[in-house]
Amino acid sequence: MKVFKFGGASVKDAQSIKNIGSILSNYANDKLVVVVSAMGKMTNAFEWLINSYCYSPLKVTEALNEIVDFHNEILWELFPDKGHIVYVEINELIYQLEQVLEDYEDYDKAYDSIVGFGELISTTIISNYLNETGVANEWLDVRKVIQTNSEYRQAKIDWEKTEELIGKAEYKSIVVTQGFIGSDSENNMTTLGREGSDFSAAIFGYCLNAEDVTIWKDVPGVLNADPKHYPEATKIDKMSYREAIELSYYGATVIHPKTIKPLENKEIPLYVKSFLNPQAEGTIVQKLTEFDDLQPSYIFIEDQILVSISPKDFSFIAEDNMSFIFAALSAAKLKVNLVQNSALSLSLCFKNEEKKVKKFFESIKKSFLLKYNENVTLLTIRHYSEEVIASMTNNKQIYLEQKSRNTARFILK
Ligand code: ASP
Ligand code: MG
Question: Could you tell me where the beta strands, DSSP code E, fall in 98-166?
Fold first, then answer.
């Protein structure tokens, strides 16, 4: 058994769906689960729909029309015969969506029961298209197998139930199913967090003891930097699970952070490959660590704020102060990306989210002196050398640096 995952960019229009059809035609006789996300940027459009519904009801029709029109255009191109069953199925989904919209309780719950329609619609279109073009497959409603708790928008997997249900499902031919969503014990739709489809693929991989899992992307594999920040970025051919987790911890976004653990637990290899060049090798993520230090990786996180905090009474920044500050951070829901302390001050770096930062500052400014620099970038270099550091920090102002054996981090402007 193999698991494939196709994200939004790989199903953004009719042409891309045809491309997936051609990739999958090579696997027609394999046991394969295909996990698919919502098309293109549709999840954002669904977020807009739910926000309109909650905060500006006059915009609901416009938001809904945008979603319907986007999918219709793709449908017309893929299914010129307007009598095709897919039109009935999509209309039925839109009808269900409208029903849910009338049934609003609380925001997070409503969010989950609406946003996941992006995946239900995309997989319905793709499954029908594949069957139409000779790639026999069955559509699986993932809500019947991925069971979660009711923490809407960040639902946690009930592994025992999910493993049992995924194990019991039938896999006679290729199975096409939804990423990102699941169901709670009351049959309400839940979501696993934005960009969660990679994780869905890993869940299937784990529960089916798959031979491997492949994430198909618009890049050749895992790159050693985001080309937006570093145009000379190159592909990493092999890396360990450990390295993949480290990279995503430091802010790399190629693989969703929750994806690795289930695969690591069963030593299932993860491939990251290009749907534009399906024959090319891509990246393999596996157990061996011996290839990890062959080349440096760079992770840039922008729009950070570096805050230096010192007690007003010139006392040491000791444990009691720290626990006060960290409690305030957690109350403001700020996620700290870097910490450094000296005798008299604690430096913290986090994303400059205005409301949260303001809340945090308000709660500590009575007892602490605050100094900060906005608009700084946090650069992490894995497997660095002094030359690499010199070239990356050249002409930049360095506000802070931190080094361990494998990782060097800089706050720069
Ligand atoms: N469609 C969802 C999102 O855009 C899940 C995913 O793409 O992985 O967040
Ligand atoms: Mg997406």
Answer: 137-140
